[in-house]
Amino acid sequence: MPENKKFSITIKVTPEHLDALQHVNNVIYVQWMQDAATLHWQSLAPAWLQEEVIWMVRRHEIDYYNQAFLDDELVVSTWTGEYTNVTWKRYYEVIRSSDGKKIISAVSTWIPLNSKTQKPRRIDDDIVNLHS
Fold first, then answer.
1. Residues 6+ apart with CB under 8 A from 113
2. Bridge-partner residues for 102, per DSSP?
3. What is the DSSP letter of 132?
């Protein structure tokens, strides 16, 4: 995947991100994935399309490689992958800046919904062309 197709945000681990073992709680990674996906969509889609389409997660798969700790700076990257008429795969990677270690990799399946009816919306050229 070309680097220009990735969207990244940087996050510094704070005390509220930690679990009882003093590393980042697994639920926090899901929140960061959603945040990165939302920001990526907002960076690409024109206002009219953002008003028309909302995205809902159908599935998450996460692989954990290393732990992240208080004050770590993490780069959360996301990019889109394969799609069907009504589902789109989105990939994620979290890397610790200080040593380049991969913390997680993940993939989610998203479904676009019509914001007014909240029913699935077809993935058409208006959406596909944003990612090409």
1. 53, 54, 55, 56, 119, 120, 121
2. 95
3. -
For Cα atoms 90, 91, 94, give the angle at the middle one, nearest 5 degrees. 140
Domain span including residue 88: 3-131
- Per the DSSP assignment, residues forming a β-bridge with 109 are 59, 89
DSSP string, 31-97: HHHHHHHHHHHHHHS-HHHHHHEEEEEEEEEEEE-S---TT-EEEEEEEEEEE-SS-EEEEEEEEET
Number of domains in the chain: 1
**3-state SS, residue 4:** helix
Full-model pTM: 0.93
Domain at 111, CATH number: 3.10.129.10
pLDDT tens, position by position, 58-76: 999 999 999 999 999 999 9
Question: Rounded to an integer, what is the distance from CA 34 to the centroid of its chain?
Answer: 5
Rg (CA), the chain: 16
pLDDT tens digit sequence for 87-112: 999 999 999 999 999 999 999 999 99
Helix (H) or strand (E) holding 118, with range, is: none
